[in-house]
Amino acid sequence: MRTGSGSDREAVPAPGAPLLDIDGLDVGYDGAVRALRGVSLRIPRRGVVAVLGGNGAGKTTLLRAISGTLGSAGGAVTAGTIRLDGRDIGGLPAAEIVRAGVAQVPEGRRVFRDLTVEENLRAGGLTAAPRIRREALHGVFELFPGLAERRRERAGLLSGGQQQMLAIGRGLMSRPRLLLLDEPSLGLAPRLVAQIGEIVTEINRQGTAVLLIEQNAVMGLRVADSAYVLEVGRVAASGPAEVLAGSDEIRGRYLGAGAGTGTASPAGPGPDDDREADAVDATDGGLAGLAAAVHAGGVGTVRAEALQVDGVTVRFGGVTALADVSFEIEPGTVHALIGPNGAGKSTCINVLGGAYRVAAGTVRYGDRTLTGLRADQIAGLGVARTFQNISLSLDATVADNLLTGRHRLMRSGVLGGALGLPRARREDREHRAQAGRVAELLGLTDLLGRSVHTLSYGDRKRVELGRALCAEPTLLLLDEPVAGMNPAESAEMAATIAAVRRELGISILLVEHDMPFVMGLAERVTVLDFGRRIADGTPAEVQRDPEVLRAYLGSEAA
Question: In a designed cystine with 161, which of 41, 89, 192, 408 is the match (CB 3.0 to 4.6 A)?
Answer without folding.
Answer: 192
